[in-house]
Prior knowledge:
By secondary structure, the chain is mostly helical. It has a domain at 21-89: Orthogonal Bundle (Arc Repressor Mutant, subunit A). Helix content is 33%, strand content 8%. It has three helices and two strands. It has helices at residues 21-35, 47-51, 58-70, and strands at residues 74-77, 81-84. Strands 1-2 form a two-stranded antiparallel ribbon. Strand 1 and strand 2 (81-84) form a beta hairpin. The chain is globular and about 35 Å long. The model has no long low-confidence stretch (mean pLDDT 87). Residues 19-87 form the HTH gntR-type domain. This is GntR family transcriptional regulator. GO terms for molecular function: DNA binding; DNA-binding transcription factor activity. Pfam families: GntR. Keywords: DNA-binding, Transcription, Transcription regulation.
Amino acid sequence: MIFSEGEPELWPVDRDAEQPLWEQVYDILRERIEAGDFPQGRAIPSINKLLGRVDVAEATLQKALTQLKKEGFLRGRQGRGIFVRPHQEWNPPPPPDGTA
């Protein structure tokens, strides 16, 4: 189940952190995708449902989703939602230190 009853109501973001909010949201969503919380081939929750879990502006959430699409984790389907792509299509950037 994507939103289980035992989860905290909000996904925490640190407004005082140096890391921008959109990157924090990106990290949260990417971790959930990689962990299988959002199954491959299935739609992620709607924007409104995601906004109910993370206390950021819609534009901030959209920026995180756009980055996940660019990296191949997600794809939008007009009128149907945003879907998790198969693992083989993921193209994350290399780690900052250059190790893979």
